[in-house]
Structures are given as C-alpha cells and as structure tokens.
Amino acid sequence: EIQLVESGGGLVQAGGSLRLSCETSGFTFAEYAIGWFRQAPGKDQEAKSCITHRAERTIYADSVKGRFTISYDNANNTLSLQMNSLKPDDTGVYYCAVGFGCELKLRRGQGTQVTVSS
C-alpha cells in the first residue's frame, strides 16, 4: 500500500523559506510521477511541482517556478520541497501525492499547512 506522510509546514514571514518533507513507502519511485500541490476544499490543485515517471524531468507551475525546488532522496525514500521567497499567496495546505502522471491522482498524504504572513 502506498503511504505518504508529510511534515515541515508552519508559519513564516513573507520572503522566508520552508522545507516540506514527505516520507514515502509502498511503491518504487521511478514507476510513478510524484510531487506536491496546494489544494483548498472543493478547489483544483495549484502550485504544483512534479517529478515525472522515471524521473525524466521536473515540472513546476508558473506560480512557483524559480522559487520552489522538488527533489527525491532515494536512500531515505523522502520527497522534499524547498520553498524560498515565500509570498502570502503561497498559504494553504500542501499535499504530497503520486500518480501515473503529474495529475497526481493515485494517492495523496494528509497534507501540511503552510501559512505565510505579510
């Protein structure tokens, strides 16, 4: 069974940084796309960062490009998201998720709250 457990959210001032982590288990990294997105109840995914199947490339939403960096540590089965130059608009619940593509629809974690104050 695929399991994803996020950590690392919190409160930060605008311009600051946070690093999110997601402990993964139950699947082989290269067989799926894996990534992060922010989602509010009843809303679409946004602010997506994704590592494609076979880790062929990384994809970033325009809103986070140049500020967020996604990476996967194979030794520790941990997905990370380094978030720099944070803005109040980045506030929300961030989910770690896997899928057959960067739609990331197969499974997601419980989410971690990120709050950026102005």
Share in helix: under 10%
If you average the pLDDT, what whole number results?
A: 96
Quaternary structure: single chain
Computed over alpha carbons, the radius of gyration is: 13 Å
Order of helices and strands: EEEEEEEEEEE
Number of strands: 11
Count the DSSP helices. Answer: 0
Can you tell me about this structure?
With about 120 residues, the protein is mainly beta. The protein has no helices and 11 strands. The strands form 2 sheets. Strands 2, 4, 5, 6, 9, 10 and 11 form a 7-stranded mixed sheet that branches. Strand 7 and strand 8 form a beta hairpin. The chain is globular and about 40 Å long. The protein starts with a strand and ends with a strand. The mean pLDDT is about 95.
Pick out its properties.
single chain; 118 residues; mainly beta; 7-stranded mixed beta sheet; 4-stranded antiparallel beta sheet; 11 strands; globular
Produce a short descriptive summary.
With 118 residues, the protein is an all-beta fold. Helices cover 0% and strands 51% of the residues. The chain has strands spanning 3-7, 10-13, 18-25, 33-38, 46-51, 58-60, 68-73, 78-83, 92-99, 107-108, 112-117.
